[in-house]
Each structure stands twice: as structure tokens, then as C-alpha cells.
């Protein structure tokens, strides 16, 4: 049984080839992680063109600026194929995936619990 699966390390040069033209597959980089979104493109609610614009490139800024939901971020995870080699990464933290928003109900319940706990402790 395989306990630890090594993540494929890719260079920006390699990713560049996967622009849907040079190579038929479409890869995008988001937060130093490489995703093969060839299959997903046609289903993208924002249209395939928006993804094609970032084919073979870093799409972090536009992916984040278009305010994708947690569902979109979960969907994205399914297409991970590797990550950018350490020397070419933009972020300092390895393996950063798009952050999920914490919803305000969750924060409220955490606050309530803390009050209760503090009250009990005196
Ligand atoms: C790479 C650059 C990308 C850009 C510029 C982009 C842009 C957009 C835009 C403008 C919308 C809104 C569409 C509308 O409301 O009519 C949208 C929605 C969406 N996108 Fe993207 N997108 C990108 C990549 C991706 C990727 C790679 C995934 C997942 C694999 C994804 C998943 C979704 C989903 C699920 C929605 C529906 C709304 C939501 O749940 O946030 N997008 N996108």
C-alpha cells in the first residue's frame, strides 16, 4: 500500500506548453499549484474562454479577484496534478491552496463557546 504519494514538481516552462495549442491539455497555476483543467473548462460557469486566457500561465490573481466560492475552491482541488518547483514559487509557504472563507455563523458560535467556557472558569 502506498502511504505517501510524492507530488509532481513542475517548472513554469513545462506548464507554459500546456496552453491548449502547443499541447492540447490546459494547465493553470493557482498559488504555485498546477491544475489540469482541460476536462473542466467546458463546465466552467464563467465560460471556457476565461480559463483559456490563463492556459499555461499563473491565474492566481484573476481566480482570487473573481471571488470564487468555497465550492469552486473544492472543485479546483480535484484537478491538482502537481506544484511549481520550489525555486520558482511565488509564495513562501509550500502547498498553499486557495483559502476557504470562514462563515460568520461559525465565528459567532466559536465566540459564544469561548464566553461560556470563560464564565465557567470564573
Ligand atoms: C483561471 C482563471 C479563472 C477565472 C478568471 C475565472 C472566472 C470566473 C468568473 C468571472 C466567474 C463568475 C461567472 C458568473 O457568475 O457568471 C466564475 C465562476 C466560477 N468558477 Fe471560475 N474562473 C477561473 C478558473 C476557475 C477554475 C480553475 C475553477 C475550478 C476548477 C473555477 C470554478 C468556478 C465555479 C465553480 C464558479 C461558479 C461560482 C462559484 O462557485 O464561485 N474557476 N469564474
From TrEMBL:
The record, for PROSITE patterns, names: CYTOCHROME_B5_1
Q: Which UniProt keywords apply?
A: Heme, Iron, Membrane, Metal-binding, Transmembrane
Q: What Gene3D superfamilies does this protein map onto?
A: Cytochrome b5-like heme/steroid binding domain
**Primary location class:** membrane
Provide the GO MF annotations for this entry: heme binding; metal ion binding
Return any one Pfam family short name.
Cyt-b5
Where is this protein found?
Membrane
Identify the InterPro entries for this entry: Cyt_B5-like_heme/steroid-bd (IPR001199), Cyt_B5-like_heme/steroid_sf (IPR036400), Cyt_B5_heme-BS (IPR018506), Cytochrome_b5 (IPR050668)
- Domain Cytochrome b5 heme-binding positions: 10-85
Spell out the GO cellular component terms annotated for this protein, sorted alphabetically and separated by semicolons: membrane
**Source organism superkingdom:** Eukaryota
PANTHER family annotated for this entry?
A: CYTOCHROME B5
Please give the name of this protein.
Answer: Cytochrome b5 heme-binding domain-containing protein
Amino acid at each position: 500500500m502506498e502511504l505517501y504519494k510524492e507530488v509532481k514538481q513542475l517548472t513554469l516552462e513545462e506548464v507554459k506548453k500546456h496552453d491548449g495549442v502547443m499541447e492540447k491539455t490546459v494547465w493553470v497555476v493557482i498559488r504555485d499549484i498546477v491544475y489540469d483543467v482541460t476536462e473542466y473548462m467546458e463546465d466552467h460557469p464563467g465560460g471556457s474562454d476565461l480559463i483559456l486566457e490563463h492556459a499555461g500561465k499563473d491565474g492566481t490573481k484573476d481566480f482570487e479577484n473573481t471571488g470564487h466560492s468555497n465550492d469552486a475552491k473544492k472543485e479546483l482541488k480535484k484537478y491538482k496534478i502537481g506544484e511549481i518547483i520550489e525555486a520558482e514559487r511565488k509564495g513562501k509557504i509550500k502547498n498553499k491552496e486557495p483559502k476557504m472563507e470562514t462563515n460568520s455563523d461559525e465565528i459567532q458560535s466559536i465566540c459564544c463557546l469561548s464566553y461560556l467556557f470563560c464564565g465557567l472558569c470564573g
